[in-house]
Amino acid sequence: MKILVINAGSSSLKYQLIDMETEEVLAKGLCERIGIDGHLKHSPLVGGKPVFNEDLPMPTHSEAIAAVIEKLTSPEYGVVSSMSEIDAVGHRVVHGGEKFASSVRIDDSVMAALEECIPFAPLHNPANITGINACKAVMGDVPMVAVFDTAFHQTMPGKAYMYAVPYEYYQNDGIRRYGFHGTSHRYVSARCAELMGKPIEDLKIITCHMGNGSSIAAIDHGKCVDTSMGFTPLVGLPMGTRCGDLDAGVIQFLMNKYGYSIDEMLNILNKKSGVLGISGVSSDFRDLDAAADAGNERARLALDMFEYWVAKVAGSYVAAMNGVDAIVFTAGVGENSKGTRAGIAKYFGYLGVEIDEAANSKRGEDVMISTPDSKVKVFVIPTNEELVIARDTRDIVG
Questions:
Q1: pLDDT tens digits along 74-128
Q2: Among 353, 351, 375, 355, which Cα is nearest to 367's?
Q3: Are 359 and 372 in contact (CB under 8 A)?
Q4: In which element (H, E) is residue 252 found?
Q5: What is the spatial distance between Cα 43 and Cα 57, in angstroms, rounded to a whole number?
Q6: 340 in helix, strand or coil?
Q7: Distance of CA 123 to the CA centre of its chain
Q8: Which CATH code of 3.20.20.70, 3.40.50.1580, 1.10.10.10, 3.30.420.40 fits the domain covering 2-148?
């Protein structure tokens, strides 16, 4: 079975074609600037075929999908002989609300429910829906599955997901903590259990997805019981450009003083805050490391704040689960920044954690970076959301 995994944004579309017999990625690519001028980078990973990396007209996502199919099946760049070899399509969907606690095969009722979830993710869900419709237009009756970022967190108890605002806002408007990055948290926690040689049902794991967007999850015996993002991805940790947790009174104060509209205020909190806002240097942790090493105190402050918040939230999840067996770092920063990992781990002395510097210097592989005698194990596990989407699609389509 060969499954095409699609992650559609408002003007972009990432994809992978995976052979589920071996779980080998046959090809991957990225369509950019959809609706503007269009560009496709298509990389065949088998057969010694060349990379295609050129501008292509893509007025809509339908043309982008058509271009992807053409490249996947072309004699020069292709990895399959025809579209009939693509058995199913798995779509990443950001928000499933309370409607979806697991992945589902897409039908008309699912599409209607996705439309109802648009108010919860107005920037992401419309793009995901557009990607699904574009695939339907080009691929016809090929079965399709939706895999939700929010689904993994639907096991949280009410005490974790409720906000202390009048209850009718939850009843009438769905105001609650939903959490995001669920597919990543799900993958790395399961992989951690494999590496430890134990059933995940016997473990308490804290997963730290750390990138430009960052979140932490508490996974107790295989189920998420808390996570740091909330109703939106804005809260929790200070991130690349997002503010993280913030007293709502600050928003009122700044809007009153500077005359900001709510849209202007949210743009500041989403795109101009986080480590970018603190450092004034960059949202890229590599740039922050370089600036801090050169003596930039604000860059050092931004890094210190991020490390402190990760350690603080992770520590609260130790309390929430009454213990922890393993802590996992993943995503761009978690997988690649040994300094950030070490800076966070220094707070975990009370857990009996000691970092192995040689192991912590490795990149691009599953590795335990704590010493063998550390009571709590610490891992770096590269995330693989596309593989989770492909596996769910295979299991559902059968």
A1: 999 999 999 899 999 999 999 999 999 999 999 999 999 999 999 998 878 888 9
A2: 355
A3: no
A4: helix 248-258
A5: 19
A6: helix
A7: 15
A8: 3.30.420.40
Residue 314 token pair: 């992770």
**304 labelled catalytic:** no
Residue 342 to residues 122, 139, 264, 355: CA-CA distances in angstroms?
37, 47, 36, 7
For the record, the structure tokens of 40 come out as 């496709």
CB neighbour list of residue 88: distance below 8 Å, 6 or more residues apart: 1, 3, 4, 142, 143, 144, 145, 393, 394, 397
Radius of gyration of the chain measured on its C-alpha atoms? 22
Domain ranges of the chain: 2-148, 198-380
Please list the residues that pair with 55 across neighbouring strands: 39
Task: State the Cα torsion 321-325-330-334 to the nearest 10°.
Answer: 100
β-bridge mates for residue 92, sequence order: 147
Catalytic residue, from 37, 55, 108, 149: name it: 149
Q: In CATH terms, are 2-148 and 198-380 the same topology?
A: yes
Grouping H, G, I as helix, E, B as strand and the rest as coil, residue 301 is helix
Q: Which residue has the tokens 């609650």?
A: 176
With a pLDDT cut of 90, the percent of the chain lying above it is 90
Homologous superfamily (CATH) for 198-380: ATPase, nucleotide binding domain (3.30.420.40)
Token representation of residue 288: 């922050």
